[in-house]
C-alpha cells in the first residue's frame, strides 16, 4: 500500500486513517523506529512509572537514548513509584524530566481542601491542577511536536478505541503499544529482564496517586481501581 | 448578554438608507474631511476617508488639519473592463487622483489621493465609464470575485455569468448613491428605500464572495465569507460546492479574533445560487454580532453556533436541502503568467504588476504601457485576484503588437522575475491606509531583493515560495494563507508567520513575534538552508515546515472533506 505522507495525514482524516492502518500492520519496534524517523522533533516520551512502564521506556530509549522522559510528579505518588523511577532512570540511563504543578501540595490543600474527596468535580479539578497543567507546560517547554505514550487498548474501556497515531492539540501523539496485551508486556519484560513496579506484586494494576489508587479485588475491573471507580482517565490523554 | 449595539449600527440605522449628512459634508468648505458619522457611511458608496500619514507630524507642527484625501474603490465583478473603460480609469487616475491605478487583491481598482472637492467629479467620471463603486466597501456584499480566466473553458464563462448576476442581485437597492454622487432627484418613499435582502441596517460587517474554478484556487476561496467552487463535468458547469465562514482579519493580542478557513456546506445546482446566497446573507444579517465589530464576520457566527446549526437555518430559509459536497481538488493558488490559449482560439497574457500598483516611474512605465495596449487591444482586461492583470481575448494576429508594447514599456517582468517575486502580495498600508502599523507595498521590492539574495545563497532561486506582506493583522493581502507572511506590528517590525500551502487550504502559524528585518532574514536564512538540504522532491516550503515540525499541525485541520481525486 502507499503510505500517506505526514502533511496529508495532518490535514485529512482519511489520510491519517490510512496511515494508522499501515501502522497497525507494523510491530511496536517498527512503529517506534518510524515515529522517531518520520514524526517531527522534538520527540518526548511520557511515563507514569506505573506498573508496566518499563517496556516502553526500554523500547524507545534503545532507538533514541537521549529522548526526554517526562514524569509528572503530583506530589502524591507512592513511595514505591519514586523509588521505581530512580531505579529505572539508573538502569536505562533515562533523560528524566520531572515536572511539578505550580502549586505545592500543602498550599493546595490549605486553599482547596482534599479535592480528591470532593466527588467527580473535585477529582477533575485536582487532575487539571496536578497533572494536565504541568504536562502542558512540559510539552511546551520541551518543544514537543511528537509525544510518545504507552496507552494500550486492553487497559480499559476508555482506551479501547485509541489509534496508534493521533493529532492532539497540534501535536503528533503516538501509542506504539496500542495493541499490546498484558501478556505481551510480560513477555517483553521477561525477555529483557525488566522490572515491574513493586506494587504490581501486591495487586495494583493501574498506579496513580496514593489517595485515588487501590489494589484490584474480586469483582473489580482494572479501571475500577482508580478515582474510586468514578472515572478512569486523569485527563492527560483524553479531553 | 444584552450588550449595546456598536456605534456603527446607530449610524447605519439613522442614515436613511446610507444618506446620512453626506451631501452637507461634501459641501462644507472649511475642512477637507467629512463628518465622523459620514466616514462610516461613505464606505458603502465605495470610498474611505484617509490622510497622508507621512505628513501627519509635519502638518500638526504647522497647525494644519491632516492632509485628508479619499480612496475610491470600484465594484467590478470578476475584475473585467473593456479597453475603453481602462482608458477612462487611467484618465481619472491621472486627472483626479495620484497618477496611479491600484489593482487590489479582490479584483477592484483603487484610486488614491482624491481630495474632497474633487470627490463627486471623480465619482461621476467613474460612472461615466459605466463602472460604479456601490458597495465596494461597507457592511454589505462587496466585489464578487471570480477565477481570473473565464475564457479557458465554457464552464469558466458560465461561472462568470452567475457571479455577475449574483453581484447585481446583492447590490444595495437604495438610491442614496445616485442622489449624492450623480445628482438624481430624491423620490421620497420611492422604490429603493426598501432593502429586501439587507434591511435598514445592512449587515453586521463586510461580506465577501468568491467563485473558484478548480484546479486553480487563484481567488483563495476559503478566505471568503461565502465561496462557490465550480463543479465541472465534461466541460460543463453542473453546480457549486458552497463554502462558508472564511475570513482573514484578526487583531493583535486578541485571541477571540482569528483568521479562519471556510467550511464546505455542500453542493447546489447553479439555479439554486440566488436562494442559497440570500439565505446565507440574511442568516448572517439576523444572527451576526452587531455589538462587537471585531466579532461580527460570518466566520464567528458559524464558529459560535456551529456549522450544523447554520446549515439547518439556511435550509429552513431556502426550503430545500443542500446536497453533500462533490469531489474536487485544487492544485495551486496564485496566477499563471505569460500567454495561455483557450478553446475559443483566443490568447490571454497575464502580466505581473508588483503590489498591483500601475504607475510610471524610472524603472518602468506600466501606466503608459497599458494605455498604449488599451488603444490597440480588441478584447478586454481582467484583474486577477493576486494584483496582476490579464490582457484577455487577444486574436492571434494581435499578439505580436502586444508583445512589442509589453517589452517597450517594461511590462515583461514576468519573463525574468523569480517565482518568489511573481507570486508575492502586499497590501497598500502606509502612507494612506489608516489601519497600517508597518509598511507593506512600499517595502515589498526591497524585501524581495533581500530574500532573493538568500535564495541564491541556498540555490533556491527558481523554487516557488508564496510570500505575502500585510501592514496590519486585518489581512487584505490574505497573508495567513502564505508560506511566508509578514504581518505588521509596528514600524519596521512584523510577526513572521510560516507554513501555509500552495493551494490556499492551510493557514500558516505564528513563528516569531514582533521581529525586525535582520531577525526576519536570519530566521529565513536558517530555514532556507534546512529546506534546501532536507526537502523531498517537489515539496513546497510550507509543507516542508509542517513535515519537519517547524510549525505545528492545525488544531482544526479538516476543511476540505472531499474525496481526493488526483
Present the secondary structure layout.
The complex is a heterodimer of chains A (239) and B (566).
Chain A lengths: L5 H6 L1 H12 L3 H11 L4 E4 L7 H10 L4 E5 L6 H14 L2 E5 L5 H8 L6 H23 L4 E3 L16 E4 L2 E4 L7 H11 L47
Parallel strand pairs in A: 1-2, 1-4, 2-3, 4-6
Antiparallel strand pairs in A: 5-6
Chain B lengths: L6 H7 L8 H6 L8 H9 L2 E5 L4 H6 L6 E6 L6 E2 L1 H13 L5 E3 L5 E6 L4 H10 L16 E2 L7 H16 L6 H7 L26 E4 L13 E8 L2 E9 L18 E6 L4 H15 L10 H8 L1 H12 L19 E4 L5 E5 L5 E2 L7 H11 L3 E4 L5 E6 L4 H10 L10 H5 L1 E2 L17 H14 L9 E4 L13 E7 L2 E6 L10 E7 L1 H18 L6 H7 L19
Parallel strand pairs in B: 6-7, 7-8, 16-17, 17-18
Antiparallel strand pairs in B: 1-2, 2-5, 3-14, 4-5, 4-13, 8-9, 9-10, 11-12, 12-15, 14-15, 18-19, 19-20
Helix pairs in contact in B: 5-12, 9-11, 10-11, 12-13, 15-16
Key features?
heterodimer, A: 239 residues, alpha/beta, six-stranded mixed beta sheet, 8 helices, 6 strands, B: 566 residues, alpha+beta, five-stranded antiparallel beta sheet, 17 helices, disordered C terminus
Kindly, what is the distance between the CA atoms of the first and last residues of chain B, rounded to a whole number of angstroms?
Answer: 48 Å
**Class by SSE composition of chain B:** alpha+beta
Q: Unreliable runs of chain B, pLDDT <50, ≥5 residues?
A: 558-566
Low-pLDDT stretches of chain A? none
Strand order of the largest sheet of chain A: 3-2-1-4-6-5
Give the number of DSSP strands of chain B. Answer: 20
Rg of chain B, rounded, reads 23 Å
Silhouette of chain B = globular
The proportion of residues forming helix of chain B, as a percent range, comes to: 25-40%
* Cross-sheet strand order for the largest sheet of chain B: 1-2-5-4-13
Radius of gyration of chain A: 18 Å
Instruction: Indicate the mean pLDDT of chain A.
Output: 93
Distance between the termini of chain A: 33 Å
Mean pLDDT of chain B: 94
The count of strands of chain A amounts to 6
Order of helices and strands of chain A: HHHEHEHEHHEEEH
What amount of the residues of chain B lies in strands?
A: 15-25%
Strand content of chain A: 5-15%
The description of the largest β-sheet of chain A is: 6 strands, mixed
Amino acid at each position: 500500500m502507499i503510505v500517506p505522507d505526514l502533511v496529508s495525514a495532518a490535514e485529512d482524516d482519511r489520510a491519517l486513517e490510512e496511515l494508522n492502518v499501515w501502522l497497525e500492520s507494523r510491530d511496536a519496534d517498527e512503529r517506534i523506529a518510524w515515529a522517531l524517523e518520520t514524526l517531527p522533533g522534538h520527540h518526548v516520551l511520557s511515563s507514569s512509572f506505573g506498573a508496566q512502564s518499563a517496556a516502553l521506556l526500554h523500547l524507545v530509549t534503545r532507538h533514541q537514548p537521549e529522548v526526554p522522559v517526562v514524569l509528572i510528579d503530583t506530589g502524591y505518588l507512592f513511595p514505591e513509584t519514586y523509588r521505581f523511577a530512580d531505579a529505572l532512570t539508573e538502569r536505562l540511563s533515562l533523560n528524566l524530566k520531572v515536572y511539578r504543578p505550580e502549586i505545592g501540595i500543602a498550599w493546595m490543600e490549605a486553599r482547596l481542601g482534599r479535592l480528591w474527596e470532593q466527588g467527580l468535580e473535585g477529582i477533575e479539578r485536582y487532575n487539571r491542577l496536578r497533572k494536565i497543567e504541568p504536562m502542558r507546560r512540559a510539552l511546551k517547554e520541551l518543544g514537543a511536536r511528537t509525544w510518545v505514550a504507552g496507552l494500550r487498548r486492553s487497559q480499559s474501556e476508555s482506551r479501547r478505541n485509541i489509534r496508534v497515531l493521533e493529532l492532539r492539540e497540534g501535536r503528533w501523539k503516538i501509542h506504539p503499544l496500542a495493541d499490546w496485551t498484558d501478556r505481551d508486556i510480560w513477555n517483553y519484560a521477561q525477555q529483557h529482564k525488566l522490572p515491574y513496579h513493586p506494587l504490581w506484586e501486591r495487586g495494583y494494576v493501574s498506579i496513580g496517586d496514593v489517595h485515588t489508587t487501590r489494589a484490584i479485588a474480586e469483582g473489580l475491573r482494572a479501571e475500577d481501581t482508580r478515582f474510586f471507580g468514578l472515572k478512569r482517565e486523569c485527563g492527560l490523554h483524553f479531553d | 448578554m444584552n450588550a449595546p449595539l456598536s456605534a456603527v449600527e446607530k449610524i447605519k440605522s439613522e442614515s436613511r438608507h446610507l444618506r446620512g449628512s453626506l451631501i452637507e459634508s461634501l459641501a462644507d468648505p472649511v475642512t477637507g474631511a467629512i463628518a465622523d458619522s459620514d466616514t462610516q457611511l461613505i464606505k458603502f458608496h465605495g470610498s474611505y476617508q484617509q490622510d497622508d500619514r507621512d505628513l501627519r507630524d509635519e502638518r500638526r507642527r504647522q497647525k494644519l488639519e491632516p492632509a485628508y484625501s479619499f480612496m475610491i474603490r470600484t465594484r467590478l465583478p470578476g475584475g473585467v473592463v473593456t479597453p475603453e473603460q481602462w482608458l477612462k480609469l487611467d484618465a481619472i487616475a491621472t486627472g483626479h487622483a495620484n497618477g496611479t491605478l491600484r489593482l487590489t487583491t479582490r479584483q477592484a481598482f483603487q484610486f488614491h489621493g482624491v481630495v474632497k472637492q474633487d470627490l463627486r467629479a471623480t465619482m461621476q467620471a467613474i460612472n461615466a465609464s459605466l463602472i460604479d463603486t456601490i458597495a465596494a466597501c461597507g457592511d454589505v456584499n462587496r466585489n464578487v470575485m471570480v477565477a481570473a480566466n473565464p475564457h479557458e473553458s465554457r464552464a469558466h464563462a458560465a461561472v462568470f455569468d452567475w457571479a455577475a448576476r449574483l453581484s447585481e442581485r446583492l447590490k444595495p437597492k437604495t438610491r442614496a448613491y445616485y442622489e449624492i454622487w450623480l445628482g438624481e432627484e430624491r423620490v421620497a418613499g420611492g422604490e429603493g428605500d426598501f432593502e429586501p435582502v439587507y434591511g435598514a441596517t445592512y449587515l453586521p460587517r463586510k461580506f465577501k464572495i468568491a467563485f473558484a474554478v478548480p484546479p486553480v484556487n487563484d481567488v483563495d476561496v476559503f478566505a471568503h465569507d461565502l465561496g462557490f467552487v465550480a463543479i465541472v463535468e465534461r466541460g460543463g458547469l453542473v453546480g457549486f460546492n458552497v463554502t462558508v465562514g472564511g475570513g482573514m482579519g484578526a487583531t493583535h493580542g486578541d485571541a477571540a479574533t482569528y483568521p479562519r478557513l471556510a467550511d464546505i456546506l455542500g453542493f447546489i445546482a447553479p439555479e439554486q445560487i440566488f436562494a442559497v446566497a440570500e439565505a446565507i446573507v440574511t442568516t448572517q444579517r439576523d444572527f451576526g454580532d452587531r455589538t462587537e465589530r471585531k466579532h461580527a464576520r460570518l466566520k464567528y457566527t458559524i464558529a459560535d453556533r456551529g456549522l450544523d446549526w447554520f446549515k439547518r437555518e439556511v435550509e429552513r430559509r431556502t426550503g430545500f436541502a443542500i446536497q453533500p459536497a462533490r469531489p474536487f481538488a485544487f492544485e495551486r493558488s496564485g496566477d499563471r503568467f505569460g500567454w495561455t490559449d483557450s478553446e475559443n482560439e483566443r490568447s490571454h497574457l497575464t502580466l505581473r504588476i508588483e503590489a498591483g500598483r500601475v504607475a510610471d516611474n524610472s524603472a518602468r512605465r506600466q501606466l503608459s504601457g497599458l494605455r498604449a495596449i488599451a488603444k490597440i487591444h480588441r478584447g478586454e482586461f481582467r484583474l486577477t485576484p493576486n494584483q496582476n492583470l490579464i490582457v484577455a481575448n487577444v486574436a492571434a494576429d494581435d499578439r505580436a503588437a502586444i508583445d512589442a508594447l509589453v517589452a517597450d514599456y517594461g511590462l515583461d517582468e514576468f519573463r525574468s522575475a523569480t517565482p518568489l517575486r511573481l507570486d508575492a502580495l502586499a497590501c497598500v498600508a502606509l502612507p494612506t491606509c489608516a489601519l497600517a502599523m508597518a509598511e507593506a507595498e512600499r517595502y515589498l521590492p526591497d524585501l524581495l531583493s533581500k530574500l532573493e539574495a538568500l535564495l541564491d545563497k541556498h540555490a533556491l532561486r527558481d523554487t516557488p515560495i508564496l510570500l505575502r506582506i500585510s501592514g496590519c493583522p486585518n489581512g487584505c493581502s490574505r497573508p495567513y494563507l502564505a508560506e511566508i507572511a509578514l504581518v505588521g506590528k509596528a514600524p519596521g517590525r512584523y510577526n513572521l508567520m510560516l507554513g501555509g500551502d500552495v493551494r490556499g487550504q492551510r493557514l500558516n502559524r505564528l513563528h516569531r513575534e514582533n521581529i525586525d528585518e535582520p531577525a526576519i532574514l536570519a530566521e529565513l536564512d536558517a530555514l532556507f538552508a534546512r529546506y534546501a538540504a532536507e526537502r523531498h522532491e517537489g515539496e513546497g516550503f510550507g509543507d516542508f515546515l509542517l513535515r519537519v515540525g517547524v510549525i505545528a499541525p492545525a488544531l482544526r485541520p479538516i476543511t476540505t472533506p472531499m474525496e481526493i481525486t488526483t
